[in-house]
Amino acid sequence: MKYLARREHSRGELWQKLLPHVQEGENLDAVLDELEKRNWLSDARAATQLVDAKRSRFGSQRIAHELRQRGVGEELIAAAMPELKSSELQTAREVWQRKFGKYPIDAKEKSRQMRFLQSRGFSTEVILKVLRSAGASPADED
Question: Long-range contacts: 101-109, Cβ < 8 Å, 24+?
């Protein structure tokens, strides 16, 4: 209950945290089933909370990876992706603007900016769009 009071956890994540504390003869799956039955444990809520918390700083690839790491099912990840992808370009622009704010002056700086955005989970296609629009005059932007 202490874990669930702090934030939403997925079933897989809570199972990993509780496994070291299980005594012989105890059934961890039965406990998790009861928590789900009472609606105290929900993968959907855990996924929604993580997506909402991370969407303003990270790309869809990184968020999907973190959801997988926390044991969220692929169907919930797939359900979250269209919404994330629709706002990914705008999020990448905002992240780039906060970090750099100006078009790279040489290839080395461009590579550095691209690596930063890739580490945040943005796709190469989105990164190139951000850098193209940053190098264009305001009248040329899409």
Answer: 102/134, 103/131, 103/134, 103/135, 104/131
pTM value surpassing 0.85: no
B/e letters for 50-86, b = 16+ CB within 10 Å, e = fewer, are bbeebbeebbbbbbbebbeebbbbeebbeebbeebee
Residue 85: partners with Cβ closer than 8 Å, 6 or more residues away? 60
Nearest one of 29, 84, 88 to 76, comparing CA atoms? 84
pLDDT, one tens digit per residue, over 35-59 is 999 999 989 999 999 999 999 999 9
Say which residues have a Cβ less than 8 Å from residue 117's Cβ, sequence separation at least 6.
Answer: 59, 92, 95, 96, 126, 127, 130
Q: Who's near 71: CB < 8 A, 6+ residues apart?
A: 10, 11, 12, 13, 15, 16, 43
Residues 6+ apart with CB under 8 A from 116: 99, 100
**CB < 8 Å & 24+ apart, contacts of 62-65:** 62/120, 62/121, 63/121, 64/121, 65/121
